[in-house]
Amino acid sequence: MSGGERGHTPVLLDAVVHWLRVRPEDVVVDATIGLGGHSAALGSRLGAGGTLIGLDRDPAALRKAEGAVRALGCRVMLRQADFGECGAVLAETGVGRANVILADLGVNSEQLDDAARGFSFQADGPLDMRLDPGSQTQASDLVNRLSEKALGDLIYENAQEPASRKIARRICEARRSGRIMTTAHLARLVCEAVGVDPSSRRSRIHPATRTFQALRIAVNDEMGALDRFLDAAPDLLDAGGRIGVISFHSGEDRRVKRDFLRRRGEGVYRIATRKPVVADESERDANPRSRSAKLRVAVREPAGEAWRATEVEGDERRGEADDES
Ligand SMILES: C[S@@+](CC[C@H](N)C(=O)[O-])C[C@H]1O[C@@H](n2cnc3c(N)ncnc32)[C@H](O)[C@@H]1O
Predict the structure, then answer these.
(1) What atom of ligand 1 comes closest to residue 3's alpha carbon?
(2) Is 129 helix (H, G, I), strand (E, B) or coil?
(3) Which residues lie closer than 8 Å to 204 by C-beta, 6 or more apart?
(4) Residue where one domain finishes, among candidates 187, 219, 251
């Protein structure tokens, strides 16, 4: 995550550049442009005949990204859109099929750092969590309206939180004395539910981490968007084109892995990354968020003779092995 400003570093940047193999005339779609870090690096490999299309649900992210890609020598188009609707955006731009599509899932550092967006339990703010401020449902709507069972299911299914039932019970008890409208209030309830004082916690992970993640995923229908994106991608890619997805938790990674494997079985994709690419120790030390990042890359078949001649050696041949990791 993160973009090209104030030392923010996009995750797995070298691997993204290596595996996506951008050529000067390519059409590159950055489906989650965020702060523009990956786009700036991929776009710097495009020439005047190349095109970069950047999408984000968050208009604030698009404004930041604009600064990061302004000086590129290629054609640049930025659109506020859900990547689940990537096909409609590509059709509207009239560029035809893409050679490279990247999705770096989740939230960017500016969204996390802005207490007013409500993504973080580290600073108090409204319980919002919408990536697109124009969308209807906020996290406070779910927290205050869902039944105890539905809330527990949501927290478990979206984040595999083992204490999901206890947390849902504590939230529903607290609701009897008033609505839960702030991140600090919710974080306190989660800590009470699991009996952990976050200031004296032994664990590296704050007790509210998974509950916040689960709510964010639900508010933004992140799994639905990912499914729609993965479904649309084969028709959006040119033969030999590459799709890369960076995921940050097992629910996302499982979806990407299963999609790529299924389509490999159908002759639609070749899997380029035999195992998911993860950050090395120096990146993990420098950027804690990279610790959970996994990059998977697939190549749209039929890849064509040119692709085979240049790439079947080395890591691509190993990519032919079963990707069961
Ligand atoms: C991890 S950040 C991307 C960072 C970016 N790769 C960079 O280098 O700066 C994820 C971005 O995806 C956006 N996003 C999340 N879900 C989305 C969706 N369904 N459609 C479009 N953008 C989405 C978020 O608003 C956020 O800006």
Answers:
(1) 9
(2) coil
(3) none
(4) 219
Residues 211/127, Cβ–Cβ less than 8 Å: no
- Among 219, 250, 280, where does a domain finish? 219
pLDDT band at 198 (very low <50, low <70, confident <90, very high): confident
Residue 82 CA, closest ligand 1 atom number: 20
Distance 301 CA to ligand 1 centre (A): 27
- Residue 117 C-alpha to ligand 1 middle, in angstroms? 15
Of all protein residues, the one whose alpha carbon is nearest to atom 20 of ligand 1 is: 82
Angular region, 218: left φ>0, alpha ψ -120 to 50, beta rest: alpha
- pLDDT for 6-36, tens place per residue? 446 799 999 999 999 999 999 999 999 999 9
Mean pLDDT, range 163-174, rounded to an integer = 98
> Rounded to the nearest whole angstrom, what is the distance from the C-alpha of residue 192 to the centroid of ligand 1?
32
Residues with CB under 6 A from ligand 1: 1-3, 10, 32, 34-38, 55-58, 61, 82-84, 104, 106-108, 131, 225
The DSSP line for 203-227 is SSS-TTHHHHHHHHHHHTTHHHHHH
Q: Which residues contact 152 (CB under 8 A, 6 or more apart)?
A: 164, 165, 167, 168, 169
Range(s) of the domain holding residue 197: 136-219
How many Å apart are CA 297 and CA 225, to the nearest integer?
18
The count of structural domains within the chain is 2
Q: Residue 266 pLDDT more than 80?
A: yes
Å from CA of 170 to ligand 1 middle: 32
The answer to whether the CB of 155 falls within 8 A of the CB of 161 is yes
